[in-house]
Amino acid sequence: MSEGSKGSLLAFGQVVIGPPGSGKTTYCHGMQEFMGRIGRKVTVVNLDPANEVMPYQCAVDIAELITLPDVMENLKLGPNGGLIYCMEYLEANFDWLQEKLAVFRGHYYLFDCPGQVELYTHHDALKNIFAQLAKWNFRLAAVHLVDSHYCTDPGKFISVLCTSLSTMLHVELPHVNVLSKMDLIEQYGKLAFNLDYYTEVLDLSYLVDHLASDPFFRNYRRLNEKLVEVIEDYSLVSFVPLNVQDKESMRQVMQAVDKANGYSFGDQEHRSLEALMSAAVGADFHFPSTLAVQEKYVQSQDKAVEEEVMDL
């Protein structure tokens, strides 16, 4: 994987990004297991210097180069400044990363990235790292995870859309936005619209109208309208729903990412995938689409209403 070498082996993978608590490490663990079961050789690379507990098998760990606690203690920086320093330090030590990755030539890579939003919206260190990987013939797609609980709050959802759009424009990689933790969505509260409204990012004027019903947001209607105009003018943001515990959900995300980074699996892997999807494993694999997730959500809401009526 020497820089600039022609004809060197292509390497495919995904950089897993998103705000803190969105489920990046859990996603990497689940995707490593899922891909492993269909025969894909997967290497997980931890690029988060604050990640001390990793459930997955970590092949390359930035902690061997630098850790956030050491930076905060020695340079007297806070967690945000420390993370930025760590990424700039990694950028200055590309040779270390190249040497570590070369050991796993021919593998599929999952890069578990830090959760600091600034690193994806306007700071250049991670963007430059991704660009360097591209020079080493890595074909990467960005998987941007967003916690699905933001769908229950129209104001937060507009903020998420703005952050996702900003990240897509700044990172400059093929992009797959993912609504994570869909198995918990019924616990977050009632959605104002059907789930596909949020995944497909449909007519956002309805969301602005819904916000206007809140006295606090009524004074900011004009601002929200302009933010929504920017999002709709670019028309780039949409989401794939994800439940890490659901095989069909994982397959849909995997295929969206494979399409984005250009990965094409062979017949053997295809047969392994079909065998995996056809195997019944406990209570897994009951909700194969956004519609099914929506049905599950509606059922839980109906049950809650019935319980309230019975209590009365």
The ordered H/E elements are EHEEHHHEHHEHEHHHHHEHHH
| Secondary structural class | alpha/beta
Write out the strand line-up for the largest beta sheet, numbering strands in chain order. Answer: 3-2-4-1-5-6-7
Alpha plus pi helix count: 15
Description:
By secondary structure, the chain is α/β, with parallel strands linked by helices. The chain has helices at residues 24-37, 68-75, 79-91, 94-102, 118-121, 125-135, 154-171, 185-188, 195-199, 205-212, 215-218, 221-234, 247-261, 267-278, 290-311; strands at 11-17, 42-46, 58-61, 108-112, 138-147, 175-180, 240-241. The protein has a 7-stranded parallel beta sheet with strand order 3-2-4-1-5-6-7, sandwiched between helices.
Write a brief caption for the model.
With 312 residues, this protein is an alpha/beta fold.
Annotate the secondary structure layout:
Blueprint: E1 11-17, H1 24-37, E2 42-46, E3 58-61, H2 68-75, H3 79-91, H4 94-102, E4 108-112, H5 118-121, H6 125-135, E5 138-147, H7 154-171, E6 175-180, H8 185-188, H9 195-199, H10 205-212, H11 215-218, H12 221-234, E7 240-241, H13 247-261, H14 267-278, H15 290-311
Parallel strand pairs: 1-4, 1-5, 2-3, 2-4, 5-6, 6-7
Helix pairs in contact: 2-3, 3-6, 7-12, 10-12
Q: What features would you highlight for this structure?
A:
312 residues, alpha/beta, globular, seven-stranded parallel beta sheet, 7 strands, 12% strand
